[in-house]
């Protein structure tokens, strides 16, 4: 284990011990009149991308306190037996109201993937100890099925479900849902206007260490684990991001000025993921900038929203940048809507930053997107950051000023944090990259623990507070960190060769002009007693079965000419319609490993004949 403990080049910042609600939407007798969280109450907090409906900071605070009032005094038929509520909804302008309403009431919110099946939802609902469910109208059927599987009657279901519709604020009817599915269910609008808490529930001092977010970390194996993120964790991450973040220009007027001059944040990353839940929901409020709300990534709609609202900072994940890089073309993942992307249709000149996170970002992809953006007059920097749900999330952040000179780096260490790069106990290097090691982090953003899993918590966090990320990283002489890949996903071909990351081969594959998307895994070869690298690729155009076979073999040969011998695709190449990815854009390699048990790959190394 290395004895080197790295600290940030930025000075430490003070961190408050209080409610995250108080921190971003608080008012007090000492606050300037007409302000909420230090900015004008009349300034826009969130804007619905499709309708243009705006919630001001003052309205957002009021709505949240009205909802908190009702959570303390539930109308019939609602009942509540715990202080954990589950939110099951795609992004909408109602999301900040229900999230912050729960926080203002002193509750914990567990955030569920809006793509979950009823069985997946059931696991989180039970594990989190939730009772009330805020559910989008389009997902009521899934929630009903889940609750029925628990043996609940229709009356009991009505006592637990709150429909999180948006019509109450946008005036636009929600997606056509059969009325019988929503019949007799309480809607969020019915919980507003009944009264308002005078102020949010206090979490001052030690109470700031109570859990407020309960996101579920998918991990690489096993059931998802509930990550207990506290008020103090969230306040900490906002405060330590600020010194490294570009100087934001808050909006101090009731609407975005036509002439610009203010920052506008935008992204369609799901709020239920810690990346979206912090960067898209909390950070704009903290910095006093409007956040534009959009559910799901439609490339053309994404660009249209940038133009309409003069967005300056966009939040993306690498697969979205792949779509931008492949212009003109169609999305290559089921995560996205398959619509043509034509940059020239939209005025993107307001955009200055596309911030990427959630998965490693290759230098070639960054360069390609920057050039394409510049071709339509948008001078855009593409920095990235690194973190995990367990670190709330950000650990490293690449300053915008260094985005061009350090393309591909995850960034510098944020203040108040410590990092060490830990080698394997047996002394074997993780990879052939000098100085690389597993990233261990210590500081105020580290989770409280995994809910109801003391053993898993003890395995992840050392007695002296170091969280083991499971990611391999390296630090250069200037203090910039780069993430290599997940420790468990490094590929080991033959004992005499060093392990290497799948992301390295994926970066090579994405340089191929006819590959829209790619993923690499190691498959076990019992005959060779080793792992063999296998690529799953999505071509940029449809292929016939005959073309697919020859194309796969040509890709295998193409890669062989560009990588070291032990990194060749000896596990073969499989053509696939879409690369499985999480909502945050991470490749779901565990799904590919399951597929690999039955898939037939072109060009796979054959076992040597025995004499």
Note the gap between the termini. 45 Å
- Rg (C-alpha, Å): 24 Å
The fraction of residues assigned to DSSP E strands is 15-25%
Overall average pLDDT: 89
The CATH topology assignment of the domain at 20-202 is Rossmann fold
CATH class of the domain at 20-202: Alpha Beta
Q: How would you sum up the major sheet?
A: 8 strands, mixed
- Poorly predicted ranges: 329-340
SS-based structural class?
A: alpha/beta
* Biggest sheet, spatial arrangement of strands: 10-9-8-6-7-11-12-22
Shape: globular
Percent in helix? 25-40%
**Number of helices, counting only DSSP H or I runs of 4 residues or more:** 18
Report the count of strand segments. 27
Describe the structure.
Among the domains are: 20-202, Rossmann fold; 491-596, GMP Synthetase, Chain A, domain 3 (2-Layer Sandwich). The protein has an 8-stranded mixed beta sheet, with helices on both faces. It has a 6-stranded mixed beta sheet with strand order 5-4-14-13-15-16. A 5-stranded antiparallel beta sheet has the order 1-20-21-23-24. The chain has 611 residues and is of the alpha/beta class. The longest helix has 16 residues, at 57-72. The protein is built from 18 helices and 27 strands. 26% of the residues lie in helices and 20% in strands.
